[in-house]
Amino acid sequence: SMIFRWAQTITQLKDEFAIIDNTLHPTFSHMLGGTAFISHLASVWPANQLALQAKLEAKDYEGALAIETAGLTPWYDFRIKAGAYTSGEAPPVKAALLMTGRVNSTGPMRVPSRELSPELKAELR
Q: What segments bear the compositional bias annotation Basic and acidic residues (predicted)?
C-alpha cells in the first residue's frame, strides 16, 4: 500500500536525508524519523506551527497530535472545501493573511483562481 511505502521510505532514508513532511501527517512522519514539515498554516498562524514543531522535537507526540488535529486538520479541510470554489490553494491563504493583518496586500489571483466567496470568508473567520 501507499502508506506502507511512505513509512518504509522514511525509516530507510532518515539517517541519510532530512525528511520534510508534506503529507499533512507531521506527527506520524516525525515518529518515523522525519525532521520537519511544510504547512500553509505556518504563514497564517506561525505560533501554532512552531508549537507543533516544538512538541515534535520534544517527542511529545500526544501533544503534537492535539495541535495537529485542532489546527492543521481543520485548516486543510477548509482549504479543500474552498478549493472547490476557488480552484486553488492560494485564495484561502491570501484571505487568511489579510484577515490576520500579516500583510496589507496579496496581489491579484492567478487565473483560474478567484477570491473566496463572502460565505467562505465568513467561515474562515
A: 112-125
